[in-house]
Amino acid sequence: MGRSPCCDKVGLKKGPWTPEEDQKLLAYIEEHGHGSWRALPAKAGLQRCGKSCRLRWTNYLRPDIKRGKFTLQEEQTIIQLHALLGNRWSAIATHLPKRTDNEIKNYWNTHLKKRLLKMGIDPVTHKPKNDTLLSNDGQSKNSANLSHMAQWESARLEAEARLVRQSKLRSNSFQNSSFASQEFTTSSPSSPLNKPVVGPSRCLDVLKAWNGVWTKPMNEITASGSATISVTGLDLEESPTSTLGYFDQNAPHISTPGINGGNSTVLFEFVGNSSGSSEGGIMNNEESEEDWKGFGNSSTGQLPEYKDGINENSVSFTSGLQDLTMPMDNTWTAESLKSNAEQISPANFVETFTDLLLSSNSGDGVLSENGTESDNGGEAGGNGNASENCEDNKNYWNSIFNLVNNSSPSDSAMF
DNA sequence: AAGACTAGCAACCGCAGAATA
DNA sequence: GTATTCTGCGGTTGCTAGTCT
């Protein structure tokens, strides 16, 4: 498949943008919308390629961009999402209102990554570096399985980001088609792209679905394995674009054959208290640095021994009186779900699943919601502090999911 | 005071996937 | 079904300002 360069580079300017160029680009987009980026430079009188214009707009000129120092909360968000998503900056940016993927990427590379390294935490795995030495024991296997599970959530976040993009496209397309309307000047003095999104955002539905899915008890997964979840009028089983119907190829998921031969999916919200999210969490940099100092003495934490069984094919774990075995291939089948659904209540499953995640994760030097590490020091294996440690770790994961739940993409820069 | 070094960030590059002809 | 175009993404580069020696 042939692919032409984004622009013929002859006579086109490169390098830093001048205020005059910025002004031209801003003026043109405010008046006409960006439309086709390729055609834009000529129309706007710029000696730049369309790609360069798009980057300048999305990373710098767009009016809904927040610039300046990252707050502690934003830092935590980045770290937590990075632990789940890796270098998927655009997906991370979806959950950081008014920050661009480029800015987040730069911030990660120049600040956060270095801090983690200083603390002895591998910025790729988000685990203490000496963990990598434990390559041949069960812990590494646990970690692998944990990451397997994380992929599940990763896939969901990715899909959500995708939906956000789609919504954005729809929104932009609407805006472009009605640019001459008075809404432009009333809703935003600076840009038409600040206009509110017209029409319902499917992303919101998805988030609501995510939040509300546990209202459907586990045992409603019937003998036929069908579980249909309808939230806010969106029948997820029938929605071809629903996040809940999208999976990363490699991501594990719980798949139950739907009535019509399709699949439906049950997602699990990790319930429980999220330790007080720093409300209004805008902190100045000094405070932020202080918190980071406290964070630093934790990297000696080790993974607790995970006493329940994990092997290549399944994961077994104990929660209270209940033993549970789940297959660890790429899908959790209706059969496995069904049988286990008979064993446990939804809340117990959540608890159990969360425990599984957390027991593999404790002592990783990850941030708790208040910006300090959940220092579990390998004690979660069953001593007196186990439940407390487990709670801390649960809070960590809950904070991630709460963060996802609470940050409506409609607040994000994508809109 | 001046040169060397470093950190931060804007911008570029190339690839991939979606959309379109 | 294929070729082409468009857009988005992530990695990388290179410039600039600040700091150190």
Based on the model shown, name its key terms.
mainly alpha, elongated, two-stranded antiparallel ribbon, 3-stranded mixed sheet, 415 residues, Arc Repressor Mutant, subunit A
What share of the residues does DSSP label as strand, in percent? 5-15%
CATH class annotation of one domain: Mainly Alpha
CATH arch. level architecture of one domain:
Orthogonal Bundle
CATH topology of one domain, anyone?
A: Arc Repressor Mutant, subunit A
What strand line-up does the widest sheet have?
A: 6-5-9
The separation of the N and C termini measures 33 Å
Protein name: Transcription factor myb39
Pfam families: Myb_DNA-binding (PF00249)
Main location: nucleus
GO biological process, one term: regulation of cutin biosynthetic process
General description of the model:
Residues 127-147, 363-389 are annotated as: Disordered. One of its GO terms (biological process) is cell morphogenesis. This is Transcription factor myb39. It is found in: Nucleus. With 415 residues, the protein is mainly alpha-helical. The chain has helices at residues 19-32, 40-44, 50-61, 72-85, 89-94, 101-118, 138-177, 183-187, 202-212, 285-295, 334-343, 346-361, 386-406, and strands spanning 121-122, 127-128, 230-231, 234-235, 253-257, 263-265, 314-319, 322-327, 331-332. Among the domains are: 11-63, Arc Repressor Mutant, subunit A, CATH 1.10.10.60; 70-130, Homeodomain-like (Arc Repressor Mutant, subunit A, Orthogonal Bundle). Strand 1 (121-122) and strand 2 form a beta hairpin. Helix 7 (138-177) crosses helix 12 (346-361) and helix 12 packs across helix 13 (386-406). The longest helix has 40 residues, at 138-177. The structure holds a DNA duplex (21 and 21 nucleotides).
